[in-house]
Amino acid sequence: MDNEIKDTKKEENSAEMTPTTTDAAEPTTDMADSKKSKKAKKKKKKSGWFYKITIMLLIAIMAFSAYKIITILYEYHVGTSEYEQVQEIAGTQSADKAKTYSGKVDFTALQKKYKNVKAWLYSKDTPINYPVAQANDNQYYLYRMINGDWNGKGTLFIDYRCEKPFNEFNTIIYGHRMRDGSMFHSLINYRKISYFNKHKKLVLTTPDAVYDVYVFGVVTIPASSDKYKYSFSGESDKQAYLDWIKSKSEIDTGVSATTDDKIVMLSTCTYEFDNARLVVYGKLVKRSDSSNKSTSDSSSDTAGSETSSCTPAYG
To answer: Which range is least confidently modeled, 12-26, 31-45, 185-199, 282-296?
Structure first.
């Protein structure tokens, strides 16, 4: 009996000292959970930093974009204000509100302040009501206003290689196509016959004469095109040039030009392909009162007739 009791106590003591399988596994599980928890915290921390950096970058991009937009809008405002002042000096500020435009420009006052002014270009019911200048190169007025201040609007300018603007067969005038609709932006509309029918002519005024500019061709060419001609060998060369304009014109204007005419090439940017340029061709018809005096700008757009140039390309 005593032996049996002793054996029973040994078994009980042995059972108490031997850990169960469940108890032995608990520390391992706790360690694994701890590792997972640490990894999760690290991952969460990394995600937090990534999120913060992303937000900061987005804020920086938005701030920079806002700055650029404000800068551009301010630049437009400065350019518009400057040209409104120039219109006041020239005496053309009321032209946009008037039913008729006389073509009269005060070149004495203009050239006293802006020595490089050669002409004034006006187009009814459009923003085109600007001075036309000429410098010693084709870069100066690219991003400078008529007063010489830097501005993206630039200035309408004649190619510097034109020695006798508007007295040679072909004179080129360059101008930017601004997103606010100013400068030469409205020329793009000449691709539509409906627009042409309402704007068949522009008015060009020089210190010596007033011209109606009758549009007779609209073409798209590369900036490097050899059609930016500045010399012609003779009548046949001029005729070939006029024939090319007629064959390539994007609208049929019904207006013709001859080798005896003086023509202008109004060039601006377009985006059908890299470095594309839109060119609107017009022929100059001197008004009967050819001096720069107040004359009537008749609403009639019937073309008249009358009995070298420049290089690319600006937009």
So the answer is: 12-26
Residue 55, in any domain of the structure: no
User: Is the confidence at residue 19, as pLDDT, over 80?
Assistant: no
- Amino acid identity at 40: A
Assigned token pair, 186 = 């409205």
Q: Rg of the chain over CA atoms, in angstroms? A: 38
In CATH, what number is assigned to the domain containing residue 267? 2.40.260.10
pLDDT digits (tens, 9 = 90+) for 78-122: 889 999 999 999 999 865 555 567 889 999 999 999 999 999 999
In a domain, 119, yes or no: yes
Task: Give DSSP secondary structure letters for the chain.
Answer: -HHHHHHHHHHHHHHHHSPPHHHHHHHHHHHHHHHHHHHHHHHHHHHHHHHHHHHHHHHHHHHHHHHHHHHHHHHHHHHHHHHHHHHHHHT-TTTTTSSS------HHHHHHH-TTEEEEEE-TTSS-EEEEE--SSSSTTTSB-TTS-B-TT--EEE-TT-SSTTTSSEEEEE--B-TTS-BTGGGGGGGSHHHHHH--EEEEE-SS-EEEEEEEEEEEEETT-TTS-----SHHHHHHHHHHHHHH-SS-------TTSEEEEEEEEE-SSTTEEEEEEEEEEE-SS-SSS-----S----------------
Instruction: Check residue 53 and give its pLDDT.
Output: 83
- What is the pTM assigned to this prediction? 0.75
- Domain range holding 123? 96-286
Interatomic CA distance for residues 14 and 202, integer angstroms: 115
Which carries the bigger pLDDT value, residue 73 or residue 285? 285
Average pLDDT rounded to a whole number, residues 133-145: 97
Kindly state the average pLDDT of the residues 194-198: 97
The number of folded domains in the chain is 1
pLDDT(312) > 50: no
Q: What is the model's pLDDT at position 299?
A: 37
How many CB atoms within 10 Å of residue 227?
17
